[in-house]
Amino acid sequence: MSDRAFPQPQDAAAIPRYAGLPTFMRLPMLTDPTQVDIALVGVPFDGGTTNRAGARHGPREMRNASAFMRKIHHVTGVAPYDRARVADLGDSPVNPIDLMDSLRLITEFFDGLKQGGCIPITAGGDHLISLPILRALAADGPVGMIHFDAHSDTNDRYFGDNLYTHGTPFRRAVEEGLLDPKRVVQIGIRGSIYDPSDLDFARAAGFRVIFIEEFIKRTAEDIIAEARDIVGAGRTYVSFDVDSIDPAQAPGTGTPEIGGFSTFEAQRMVRGLAGLDIIGADVVEVSPPFDVSNMTSLLGATLMFELLCVIAAGIKG
């Protein structure tokens, strides 16, 4: 890796964190995916939201909050910017008045990242964005997924025949051959449901669904050890919906469900993903209009940093 330039965050001891243009982790803003190993990107889209909108503002506020991140992980010692070329590659284009066009635009953007050879870590946006991302990253074969969420997001349709909402992406992903359902783990599922059949698709397909009631009887490390066994050594996507965390610690989200796991439990689980073949990750459903003191945006940015450290540690020079 000695022959490659490694972008570095702005030095907070020289330029205050509140100064300068906001970028993820205060890194340089680039446009060429061939120049990076890991791309930090945003998808400012919430056209799949069925109730409380606002996640379209998530990427901008997570960029602001990411100024709190420093260079080295305090537990693992990973210094991601010394291990991998990392930069902010901007936001995917979206069409705020045309959902289907937005799905096309997002897929094209992520296909460009894939063709450029980099691994994207994405700030959403509502959870529907995972579908067009997977259409790009899993175009050459289904992948496994570790999915943190209060909701399974495997409903069929909403409001008549609307197949594309933030409650349907992973049903569509299985139907389109993007996910290997036998290699999908969902962690933190809870809350009231519309119908007794709501989870039938996930179970019948072969998803491992871990309800919060099971989670609290075990440890975060035990849960992730099982998840690692299920996804194995194959290509794996990581999707983190912030509503998996208790809304006392993550109030800024569109569909809060009480009784979730804690921010620290989330960190421990993400750290346990080290060594997996992660082809991409997202942190979704941060909705700044419902946030308190930007704590959910900070959570989202911190989870992006945790994912960055895990992925960077696996980059081979």
Automatic annotation (TrEMBL):
Its cofactor is Mn(2+). One of its GO terms (molecular function) is agmatinase activity. Gene3D superfamilies: Ureohydrolase domain (3.40.800.10). Binds 2 manganese ions per subunit. The keyword Metal-binding applies. Transmembrane segments: none annotated. Pfam families: Arginase. Keywords: Hydrolase, Manganese, Metal-binding. GO terms for biological process: putrescine biosynthetic process from arginine, via agmatine. The keyword Transcription regulation does not apply. Mn(2+) binds at residues 127, 149, 151, 153, 241, 243. InterPro entries: Agmatinase-rel (IPR005925), Ureohydrolase (IPR006035), Ureohydrolase_dom_sf (IPR023696), Ureohydrolase_Mn_BS (IPR020855). Belongs to the arginase family. Agmatinase subfamily. This is Agmatinase. It comes from Zavarzinia aquatilis. The gene is speB.
